[in-house]
């Protein structure tokens, strides 16, 4: 499998300002509301991401807890994290959100799943099953929340 096959993304123009959309993404307690894969159960409040190096903790819908290590951050524009099991090194996959504000008050949102560095063979089937349609489902749910304000 070539490297570009291990990077999946989807984009959509959302009728809301980038700052409002970013708040929904950067606050882990809000993420289960828009997760299109129904993979996220809950995150404790008060974990709003503010910088590279932050770690937020999320409970998945099927029970396990994940620590999410923020590796890219630009307030209002970019956030990316690498999930891991508690007290373990991240196995190499990355979730990224990029927001580009447009002049008309809308925002182009791009969601990317990158597993080019995934080194855990047990996670490969799930990584391979993460398609652009699944990413788009999260963007669509995010858009519904952001557009109703």
TrEMBL record:
It comes from Mycolicibacterium pallens. InterPro entries: Polyketide_cyclase/dehydratase, START-like_dom_sf. This is SRPBCC family protein. The lineage of its organism: Bacteria, Bacillati, Actinomycetota, Actinomycetes, Mycobacteriales. It holds the Pfam family Polyketide_cyc2. Gene3D superfamilies: 3.30.530.20.
């Amino acid at each position: 499998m070539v490297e570009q096959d291990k990077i999946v993304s989807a984009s959509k123009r959302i009728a809301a300002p980038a700052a409002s959309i970013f708040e929904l993404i950067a606050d882990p307690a809000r993420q289960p509301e828009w997760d299109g894969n129904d993979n996220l159960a809950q995150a404790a409040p008060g974990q709003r991401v503010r910088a590279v190096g932050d770690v937020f903790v999320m409970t998945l819908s099927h029970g396990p807890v994940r620590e999410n290590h923020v590796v890219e951050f630009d307030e209002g524009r970019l956030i990316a994290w690498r999930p891991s099991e508690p007290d373990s090194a991240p196995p190499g996959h990355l979730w990224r959100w990029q927001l580009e504000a447009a002049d008309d008050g809308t925002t182009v949102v791009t969601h990317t799943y990158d597993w080019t560095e995934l080194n855990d063979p047990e996670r490969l089937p799930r990584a391979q099953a993460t398609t652009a349609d699944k990413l788009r489902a999260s963007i669509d749910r995010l858009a519904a929340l952001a557009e109703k304000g």
